[in-house]
Amino acid sequence: MGASRRIIASVAALAAAFAGAAVAASASPADSEVTVGSPSTPFSQNKQNEPAVAIDAHDPGVVVAGANEEIDMESCAAGDPSTCPFTNGVGVSGVYFSFNGGAWTQPTYTGWSARHCLGPAVCTPRVGPIGTLPHYFEAGLVSDGDPAVAFGPRPGPGGTFSWSNGSRLYYANLTSNFGATRQLETFRGFEAIAVSTTDDVRGASANNASAWRAPVIISKQSSTTFSDKEQVYADNASSSPFFGHVYVCWASFRSQEKGHALPVPLTVATSTDGGTSWTTRQVGPATSNGINSQPDGCVVRTDSTGAVYVFGVGTRQGTNFQMMYRSTDGGAHFKGPFLVTPVVKPGVFDPVEGRPVMDGIAGARVDLAGGPNVDIANARPTGTGGTNEIFMTWADGRLGLNHEQLMLTWSRNAGQAWATPLAVPIAAGDRPVYSAPAVSPDGSDLYVVYNAFTTPYRNDTTSPRGLVGVVLHANVVNGVPTGWSVLERTPVGDPRGSSANALISEFLGDYVYAAATNDFAVAVWNDTRDAAPCDSINAYRASLYTASPVSPPNVLGTCPATFGNSDIFGGQYADPTP
Q1: Distant-in-sequence, close-in-space partners of 325: CB < 8 Å, separation ≥ 6
Q2: How far apart, in Å, are the Cα atoms of 268 and each of 219, 231, 265, 283?
Q3: Chain centre to alpha carbon of residue 107
Q4: Could you tell me the mean pLDDT of each successive run of 10 residues in the chain, 578 residues long?
Q5: Among candidates 2, 7, 53, which has minimal Cα distance to 389?
Q6: Would you call 3 helix, strand, or coil by DSSP?
Q7: CB atoms within 10 A of CB 540
């Protein structure tokens, strides 16, 4: 206890200097598009969002990303030109590979596809090229996005994990039934969690679908279950007694009756055999109401001792908190929730969307902007020499609309005590919406990526809006991040050029992502630099806030070709202070 009090005291002494520090700018390397297979037109084939990224701790030259990817959807011009639907049965879980620190490859497999549906005929999907995970159509499933990726060690012939066996990539995502009737269901309920794996990332990147195993459904499903917002992590430190175990967390929305999804227990699945079989456990209570709600937007990580940490944002007595659960027995039992810190979720309620937004009416939803993103300095791949310090970031609205902050806290004693949350110094005018930290395995460097709106909240759809991606770096000195610098600041894009398939609003998804080694970091973010706003769509969206809404327009007939062209961009950044 004395040690943790000294830690917090030292943090408090540094708080003023930290909060007021200027962000030093450094030379910005060229970023690159991750979603390289995506066309710039038509909508919605040009739409991607919600990126995830992982670095192979055993072979750091190997980087894999995932994203919601609509390359295989039908064009808005197919059938009714004023609608841009998700094509039934077509998957959206995109995967991308990099082996040289910057250039990305998007493989093409075969599955259920609507790429050929360019109009004006009504779309008839068929087996054809796909830019998403393979083997879902064959399994009676649809890959439904919310991607999460992680590398762990490969099990040997006797089931023992060792990096000498090589690495295994885990890709967790939502999945739905391909069949539309109860008789054709592969599983019960609306959405399940599935995991795909491969031991051959180079083969997978070279269009070899056989490099992937068939997806495994890991969630327990009832007829009303909607599993959502999952994340995956493999215990990747060989010092851990649970080395090689894999953990997936998600929120299990159990009821779809009368528009309600309650209760919503936090759920964790564990695999001890490399993803072949899984044990699923409810973590904490299921009760959710207006006063108390269970954690959503979960994050899972492990430290070098094998402890498993699961984080999410929930409510106690009407106040939002970052919450933590912890297991020290390989996920068999969890203690918690421990309340880390209060959170003020940013955004204002949008009456048309029925969800909070930040950039203006008909803006991009920001339900999980206040949710945590977390990383731990667990000294992967050996577990030797790390600090096991935990870093957490989120976007916070405690100062009010147009004054949102990028908040940071950390713990040096397994989450028993946390530093008083501090606002990361960012550029004036930046309104952070999604963020993610990545700490070097040895704990000496902290990287943070965030998306930010650069314009104030708009009460109209005609005024320009700004969106940027930013990557920051800080040295971690005696456990405290210091000396912040900017490694990347992207060209400004207009988020009005992004779109939900329903057309009533923008869409950027729910997160960004980063990962780090002791020598560099990789970050990915949502980007609209190449997306063009559309006057007819802006007018349609604005009308929805009046007593006389108009009908949606002919999208491709009235909009610029690159309307809806949201992309995933990313970069690799060498440690600037090695």
Answers
A1: 266, 283, 284, 295, 309, 310, 311, 334, 335, 336, 337, 338
A2: 9, 10, 10, 7
A3: 21
A4: 36 42 50 96 98 98 98 98 97 97 93 98 98 97 96 95 98 89 67 95 98 93 65 98 97 53 76 97 79 88 98 94 97 96 98 97 97 98 96 98 98 98 98 98 98 98 98 98 98 98 97 97 98 98 98 98 98 96
A5: 7
A6: helix
A7: 22
